[in-house]
Specification:
By secondary structure, the protein is an all-alpha fold.
Length: 263
């Protein structure tokens, strides 16, 4: 066997060891094996791609872009490397480069829904709400069960000043799953009911959540706001006391991260 063939084989074996360290979030060890793989075969395009992914996990987007560039120059071109490089560009605020990479990913694979979702987030960051919502819709046509995309779409509606459409998006998503457990979607719907001026419906959602998970402090906080809106001062007072109790408790207390701007 020629030395170059031996080096390629050794490079691949070293790269095969990276996954378990990456999955364990031991990025330093993963990088050690990746660098050894590249030392054995500097033309291993996959190794440069993997190095870029590790650098992204280590919050080093500039260096990640360099590794992705090297991988692409060596012939590694698929939709994943372009969305990864696009995301690195986005982190350093090079939005035009990011958009170009997301477009390239979709040219390679028009059904690659993460590219639509990521491009939608980019449009949202640039306050291009029409194109953002269009991309979120494209992503949801391919992966209709991705509630995170629904929430980001709702955020686009909210920022564009169209809260009723945000509420409709969540309601339609839940309606399509009427035979499933919908509890994980109730917080978002309750918040949107609150923002759209339906306090009684909001209270109903938050109350159902509280019945299922008594230590979900965020549900009490939002229900408290709605009780105040409808003049239920005693119930609001009870919720306020429960909030204090939960916040002073050393036990398990869950805070829900709101995908929309606060009230």
């Amino acid at each position: 066997m020629r030395e170059s063939d031996r080096n390629r084989k050794a490079s691949k074996k070293l790269l095969d060891k990276v996954g378990k360290y990456f999955d364990a979030r031991n990025f330093e060890k993963a990088m050690d094996f990746t660098n050894l793989s590249i030392e054995k075969d500097q033309y291993n395009a996959e190794a440069h791609f993997v190095k870029g992914n590790i650098l992204m996990a280590m919050e080093e987007p500039y260096k990640a872009i360099q590794s992705f560039n090297e991988s692409i120059a060596l012939g590694y071109r698929d939709e994943v490397i372009y969305i990864n490089r696009g995301t690195a560009f986005k982190k350093i605020k090079k939005f035009d480069n990011s958009l170009s990479d997301y477009n390239l990913a979709l040219e390679i694979n028009p059904d690659f829904y993460p590219a639509y979702a990521l491009r939608g987030e980019l449009f949202l960051e640039r306050e291009d709400f029409i194109n953002a919502i269009k991309d979120f819709d494209s992503a949801l046509k391919i992966e209709p069960d991705d509630f995170d995309v629904v929430l980001t779409k709702c955020s686009a509606y909210e920022k564009s000043g169209d809260l009723p459409k945000a509420l409709k998006a969540v309601k339609n998503f839940i309606l399509a799953r009427k035979n499933d457990d919908i509890s994980e979607y109730l917080m978002a719907r309750g918040i949107l009911y609150t923002k759209c001026g339906f306090p009684l419906k909001a209270i109903q959602d938050f109350s159902q959540l509280i019945d299922e998970t008594d230590y979900l402090v965020t549900a009490y906080k939002w229900r408290y706001k709605n009780y105040l809106k409808i003049g239920e001062s005693q119930k609001a007072k009870a919720d306020k006391e429960k909030i204090k109790e939960l916040e002073n408790n050393d036990g398990v207390v869950i805070e829900y991260v709101c995908p929309f701007s606060g009230d």
